[in-house]
Amino acid sequence: MTETAPSGSGTDVCLAGISKRYGTFTAVHPLDLTVPAGSFFALLGASGCGKTTTLRMIAGLEEPSTGSVVLGGQDVTALPPYKRPVNTVFQSYALFPHLDIFENVAFGLRRRGVKSVKRHVGEMLDLVQLGEMARRRPHELSGGQQQRVAVARALINHPRVLLLDEPLGALDLKLRRQMQLELKRIQTEVGITFVHVTHDQEEAMTMADTVAVMNAGRVEQLGAPADLYETPRTTFVANFLGTSNLITAEVLDAAGDTVVLRAAGTKLALPAGRCPAAARTGDKLLLGIRPEKITLTHADDADTVPAGRNSVRGRIATAGFIGVSTQYVVDSPVAAGTAGLSVYVQNIERDPRLVPGAEVLLHWNPGHGFGLDAAQRIEAGTDVDLGEGPS
Amino acid sequence: MTTTATAPAAPPAAPARRGRLVPYWLLLPGILWLLLFFVAPLVYQASTSVQTGSLEDGFQVTWHVATYWDALAQYYPQFLRSVGYATAATVLCLLLGYPLAYLIAFRAGRWRTLLMVLVVAPFFTSFLIRTLAWKTILSDGGPVVSALGSLHVLGLTDALGLTEGHRLLATPLAVVCGLTYNFLPFMILPLYTSLERIDGRLHEAAGDLYARPLTTFRHVTFPLSLPGVVAGTLLTFIPAAGDYINAELLGSPDQKMIGNVIQSQFLRVLDYPTAAALSFILMAAILAMVTVYLRRAGTEDVV
C-alpha cells in the first residue's frame, strides 16, 4: 500500500468510535472524527469537554477505552507515543529546561538519528524567527518565544499531524492574536495537518478550516467556521460560538418553502431549509438570530422598514458604545422571560434617538435566522467554564 | 545643637537605615554560634597541630610542621582506605537510592508519604544502636552468614577479597555495608527532592519526540536530577569518609579508617598534635576532592 503524502489529499486522522472513561466518569463518548490531510482542524470546547483527552489519545499519551486511532491509513491505537508519526505542542510548552533552544529543537532529530541536524535546526529556527536565540536556555526567553520554540521542536520532525494543546493559552491577548496569524502562516507554509485544541472560539474561527465544537464529551457540531456560525444546529453551538438571540416560537404553517412562526402575537418567517427537519404545524421551535443581523429603526420611522423582513417591536433597555459598534439590549414581547434581545449596530450613521427608553422596531432578513429544536436548554453554552484547567 | 535643621530630614532616613541593618541582625545569632563552636575550636586545633610536648610537661607551640608529614607517612593507608570505603558506600547508596527515590517520586501515588516516612524512620533510633544491631545481624552463625554461605556467595566475596574466612563481621564488606546503610537516607532525600520537582509533562514531551522510556531517562530525567545526585553524593561521601563507628563496630583493626585513628590518637594515645594534624589533613583532602568533583559535575544548577 502506498502512503499518501502529508500534504496530499486524503485523510490524515481517522478516529473510529473512540472513547475514554475514567472509572464511572466518561470524558469522551464514542466519537468518530475524520481530519482531511493538510487541513487546520480545531477542537473547540469549554474546560472539561473532552477536547484535550481526544488530542492526547491521538498522541498516544492516553489510552482509549474503546475505538481506534488511524493515522494516514495506519492503525496506531496500540503504538506508544514514541512510535507515532505525530508531534505535540504542549499547553505550557514543556521545553526541556536543561537544554538550550538548539538542543530542544534538535531533540526529535537526534532520537531518530537524522543526519545534518545543524542545518535542519537552523532552518527551523529561521522559520520561527529565533535564529539568534539558539544558545539560550528556555527560561531566558519570553512566553511568545518559548511558544515558537515549542512549535519548532514539534514541526522539525515533519509529523504527519501536528497536535496543539491550547498552545496560546498562556499568552496575553495581543500576543495571542499575533501568534494565531503566525501559526496559520506556518501551517500554510509547511502544509502539515494541524489539530488544534482551544477554548477560545475566536481563535478557532480565525485559524481553522474545520471546527468541531465539543460539549460534555461529545461533538455537538462540525463544520467550516462560517457554517457553524451562520447555521448552528444546537443551542450550545449558537450560544458558545458568538452570541445568539433565541426566540421561542410556535409553527403556524410548515407547508411551503417558508415556515411561518408566531412569537408573542408577531408573525415571523424562516426558510424551510433552515428549520429542524421535523418541524410541523403546532410545534414549538427556537428561532435564532445573530445580534449583528438585526437592524434597529426608531418606531417613528416604522413605515421605512422594507416589506418581507421579520419585524418585532421593542424598547431599548441599555446601550453600550464600544467604538466600532454600539451594543443594545432591547426588551421585547417576543423575548419575554429572557434578558432581552441583543443588537449590534455598526457606528456608521448613528441615530441620536436610539437611547435607552426609545421605542424601536427590530427587523432582519428572514434568511439570516435559524431554527433550533425547542427541546433543548435555551441557555446551553452561555454559562460554560472557560478556565485553563485540563479538559 | 542644630536639632531644628536635622529633624525634618531624620524621620524618612531612620526607617531606611534600620531596614538595611535587619539582615545583619538576623545573621548575628548564627555568626556568633559559628564563631564560638566552629571557628574557635578550629583555631585551637590548628594551634594544637603545631605544638610539641607531652601530657606531663605540657604542650608548647613550636611550629613543628613536621607533625603533618609524619602523620601522613604513618597513616596514609587509613586515609586511602577511608576514601575507598566512602567512595564504595557512596556508589552503593546511589545505586540503591536512585531507583527507590524514582519510584517514590513518580510511581508511589498515595503511598508516597508513607514511603518517605519509612526512609527517614531509622533516624528515630540512635546511629550507634542501629550499627550495633548490624553487628548482631552479621555475626558469625547469624542468619545472614548462614544464608549467604549456603548460597555460596561468601565463597565468591572471599575470592574477591571483600570478606575473609566465610564470615562477614570484621571484613571490608561489613564496613561498607554499614556505611551504606547508615547514609542511605542522606542520598535518598535530595534525590527525591530533585526528581519530584521534574514536570511530568517533560516525560510526555520526550516520548512525543521519539524517545523510548530508557532514552527519556538518559536525556531528560537523569540530567534534571543531577542537582540531587551531587547533593546526595556529597552528603554521603563527606560524613562517610570521616566516620569511625562503622569500622569500630563492624570491622577489625585491618579495616580501621582515618576516623578511628583520630579518635584513638585523641582519646587513647593522647597525642593531641598528631590527632589535630590528621583532622586537618582529612578536612583538606575532602575539600580538595569535593572541589574537583563539583567542577566536574558542573555547579551551574547545583548549589
TrEMBL record, chain A:
<protein>
    <recommendedName>
        <fullName>Spermidine/putrescine import ATP-binding protein PotA</fullName>
        <ecNumber>7.6.2.11</ecNumber>
    </recommendedName>
</protein>
<dbReference type="GO" id="GO:0043190">
    <property type="term" value="C:ATP-binding cassette (ABC) transporter complex"/>
</dbReference>
<dbReference type="InterPro" id="IPR017871">
    <property type="entry name" value="ABC_transporter-like_CS"/>
</dbReference>
<keyword id="KW-0813">Transport</keyword>
<dbReference type="GO" id="GO:0016887">
    <property type="term" value="F:ATP hydrolysis activity"/>
</dbReference>
<keyword id="KW-0067">ATP-binding</keyword>
<dbReference type="InterPro" id="IPR003439">
    <property type="entry name" value="ABC_transporter-like_ATP-bd"/>
</dbReference>
<feature type="domain" description="ABC transporter">
    <location>
        <begin position="13"/>
        <end position="241"/>
    </location>
</feature>
<dbReference type="InterPro" id="IPR005893">
    <property type="entry name" value="PotA-like"/>
</dbReference>
<keyword id="KW-1278">Translocase</keyword>
<comment type="similarity">
    <text>Belongs to the ABC transporter superfamily. Spermidine/putrescine importer (TC 3.A.1.11.1) family.</text>
</comment>
<keyword id="KW-0547">Nucleotide-binding</keyword>
<comment type="function">
    <text>Part of the ABC transporter complex PotABCD involved in spermidine/putrescine import. Responsible for energy coupling to the transport system.</text>
</comment>
<dbReference type="InterPro" id="IPR003593">
    <property type="entry name" value="AAA+_ATPase"/>
</dbReference>
<dbReference type="InterPro" id="IPR013611">
    <property type="entry name" value="Transp-assoc_OB_typ2"/>
</dbReference>
<comment type="subunit">
    <text>The complex is composed of two ATP-binding proteins (PotA), two transmembrane proteins (PotB and PotC) and a solute-binding protein (PotD).</text>
</comment>
<dbReference type="GO" id="GO:0015594">
    <property type="term" value="F:ABC-type putrescine transporter activity"/>
</dbReference>
<dbReference type="GO" id="GO:0005524">
    <property type="term" value="F:ATP binding"/>
</dbReference>
<dbReference type="Pfam" id="PF00005">
    <property type="entry name" value="ABC_tran"/>
</dbReference>
<dbReference type="InterPro" id="IPR050093">
    <property type="entry name" value="ABC_SmlMolc_Importer"/>
</dbReference>
<dbReference type="InterPro" id="IPR017879">
    <property type="entry name" value="PotA_ATP-bd"/>
</dbReference>
<keyword id="KW-1003">Cell membrane</keyword>
From TrEMBL, chain B:
<feature type="transmembrane region" description="Helical">
    <location>
        <begin position="113"/>
        <end position="132"/>
    </location>
</feature>
<dbReference type="InterPro" id="IPR035906">
    <property type="entry name" value="MetI-like_sf"/>
</dbReference>
<feature type="domain" description="ABC transmembrane type-1">
    <location>
        <begin position="79"/>
        <end position="293"/>
    </location>
</feature>
<keyword id="KW-0812">Transmembrane</keyword>
<keyword id="KW-1003">Cell membrane</keyword>
<comment type="similarity">
    <text>Belongs to the binding-protein-dependent transport system permease family. CysTW subfamily.</text>
</comment>
<keyword id="KW-1133">Transmembrane helix</keyword>
<protein>
    <submittedName>
        <fullName>ABC transporter permease</fullName>
    </submittedName>
</protein>
<feature type="transmembrane region" description="Helical">
    <location>
        <begin position="85"/>
        <end position="106"/>
    </location>
</feature>
<keyword id="KW-0472">Membrane</keyword>
<feature type="transmembrane region" description="Helical">
    <location>
        <begin position="169"/>
        <end position="192"/>
    </location>
</feature>
<dbReference type="GO" id="GO:0005886">
    <property type="term" value="C:plasma membrane"/>
</dbReference>
<keyword id="KW-0813">Transport</keyword>
<feature type="transmembrane region" description="Helical">
    <location>
        <begin position="275"/>
        <end position="294"/>
    </location>
</feature>
<dbReference type="GO" id="GO:0055085">
    <property type="term" value="P:transmembrane transport"/>
</dbReference>
<dbReference type="InterPro" id="IPR000515">
    <property type="entry name" value="MetI-like"/>
</dbReference>
<dbReference type="Pfam" id="PF00528">
    <property type="entry name" value="BPD_transp_1"/>
</dbReference>
<feature type="transmembrane region" description="Helical">
    <location>
        <begin position="24"/>
        <end position="44"/>
    </location>
</feature>
